[in-house]
Each structure stands twice: as C-alpha cells, then as structure tokens.
Amino acid sequence: MKILVANRSGNVGKTTTVRHLLAPRIKEPEIVSVETINSDESDEGAIRGQQFALVQDLLLTVDDVVVDVGSSNFESFRDLMRTYDGSHEDFDLFVVPVVPETKQERDTILTIKDLADIGVPPQKIVVLFNKLEREEQIDEAFPMLRAFHASEKLFSLRRDAFVLANPIFATLRKMPGRSIIEIRDDQADYKQMLADAMKNGASEDEKSHIKSLIATKRLAAGVVTQLDSAFKALTRKGKAGE
After folding, report:
1. What InterPro entries does its record include (predicted)?
2. What CATH fold (topology level) applies to the domain 2-235?
3. pLDDT computed for residue 16 by the predictor
C-alpha cells in the first residue's frame, strides 16, 4: 500500500498518524518525510524536481510506502504532482488528518480541493478525525467539513476514521523510538517492581516513574485497539458518495 499523508495546516496529528497508526499496520513500509529530504534547502517549503523524482522512483519500486508531506512543503509537492501528469495515481490512498479547530478545518478543505484539482478521486481521499474527546463529537466538531462533503463530495467522510485524544500521545514524545504496540507488549512486571521499590524504601521519584509506566502500559492497550479500528476505516475500499 502506498499512502500520502498531508495537510496544508500544521498541528493536525500527522506524526501520530504516520508513526503510530499507519506504519505499524503496514508490512515493513518505507517511510519518507518530505520535510527531511528538503531540510538542507535554503528556500524553505520548496520541493525540487530532483527530490520529487526520488519519491517517484521509490513509489515505482517498492510495494509499501508512507509519504509524509509537511505543511510548508505541501504546495510545491502538489505542483510537482500536477507537473508530472498522472503521478498521483502511484498512491493508493491520501490521508488528510484534521483536528477540531477552525483554522485546521479550513486548511483541510483547501487541501482536499487541491488534491481533487490534480485528479485524485474522492474514494482515495479520506479525512482522519484526530484528537476527539468522544466519537459522537465528529458532526458537531467539524461543521464546515460536513457541509463541504454534503455539497461537493470531493472526499470520503468516514465517521469511524477517528483517533480519540489520549494522554499517551504526550508521553510518547518523551519516549522517542518506542511504539504504542511495543509499550503494550512490554513483558516487564512493573507492579512487582513497584512493590519491590516500596519495600526497599525507594525515592518518591523512582516510585512515581514506575507508576507512570504502569499507567502508560494500560493506556496503550486501549489505544492500540482504537487505532486498529481507525486503520480499517481508512484503508477499506472506498465507494462513491461516501
């Protein structure tokens, strides 16, 4: 599977989407960060044709790729997809994460219009609703997207493609390199470690650290199940008018 994750807006949960939702559920995918390959360019946000060619070569060579396009790079990446006519067809899916904020919702609509303008069909553009407090919040939290979908049908609106807000995502920023699945499957007996620490007169900081590990592992179990559901919603075969 070849997936592009993008939004004109920042702070929409793209890191969570790429690292913790998509990558662990695709068999050994190549992860390409467009911001990374462009990091040594003086003209910030401008993707060169040569750089785009590298991405194209990868898409034509391997079976599973996730391309993460930073918000500052989106316009030039879009323009190059338009220049290389038909290059958008190399992707199986375009995931557009969004959070319940007015600016991000507006930018998401512009992103969808951009993708549709270069020929991406609605069945391939799926919005991922991020940082929801509860599942039922989708309709009330994204009124502009709901109205836009009703009027133009340029993307797939799937109410089961969502990620709930969870404190584990803030914790993960302090644990680089660890996935939620790895945390869930950690075999360490932290409860016994806590009991030993209390018995041996460990410091409050040490006991607090062990308690946080217990809490994080418990959170991970529920989050993995929820991310599994979101992945199924994103990747199921699209249908017209969805």
Report:
1. P-loop_NTPase, StbB-like
2. Rossmann fold (3.40.50)
3. 84
